[in-house]
């Protein structure tokens, strides 16, 4: 074979080998750049049950009249705070209303006489409460079955917890509440009561859980939808990592660490098994396998696997078995 041809083939081979080596080196650098280092920290973590709920009165009291007649005067409006024994409205019985109407046609003094002799009926508040509904207007005729007012002694939040979570919920647990109408307002509270009877919703057994807010903002209205996070467990001084630092391989929970004994100038990686504990959307508790101050590595997601190698990343660490 011609020496020039052989020399050309050798040059091509050397060039190809150099190119392949460069590709491998550059791939290694890309992979290194796609990793970020995280330190195991300590802090507080809580696990929550998230659900929805509704604002409603703890004691919803409907006020009705003991007589049929006409509304003469109303002393309160919706939203008013009333004490036990406060006057809510004044009514005339049907007979009194008819008598006064007839007296008005005759003489002013006769009307005043009957108003003094035949007293109005007073509607009183039976409890300390807030007026959340006023259903009447002056001059309106009412019967004994009509609702005049609705009182609420306290607004609470009823959370809807399904049966898969109800076993982790207990009275006294803390909760945070935000309204769909006012998502920027978050109120804390505590579970006051867990109802014993469930109701079926979308083929799931749901239990009502009463939560008493620590404060009642003025914007709270009965019937408002709420998002509720119930703190079922919490720990202080726990070892913490973000959820993305953990992976599941062959049924084991692992993190990525630098291999021990390797030169830091050309590092390699290995998977280390850990045991996790409490978890929320922000952090995971590490129960075993790491210590405070340890470092782990997380992929930034910038590396795209080639389809030709079946999705195998040649620059990822081998699995530690």
TrEMBL record:
Primary localization: other
Signal peptide (residue range): 1-20
Ranges where the CzcB-like barrel-sandwich hybrid domain occurs: 62-153
Signal is among the record's keywords: yes
Domain of life, source organism: Bacteria
Matches recorded under PANTHER family: EFFLUX SYSTEM COMPONENT YKNX-RELATED
Sorted UniProt keywords: Coiled coil, Signal
InterPro entries referenced in this protein's UniProt entry, alphabetically: BSH_CzcB-like, CzcB_C, UPF0194_transport
UniProt xrefs under Pfam families: BSH_CzcB, CzcB_C
Domain CzcB-like C-terminal circularly permuted SH3-like: 241-305
Organism: Prosthecochloris ethylica
Subcellular location: Cell envelope
Name of the protein in question: Efflux RND transporter periplasmic adaptor subunit
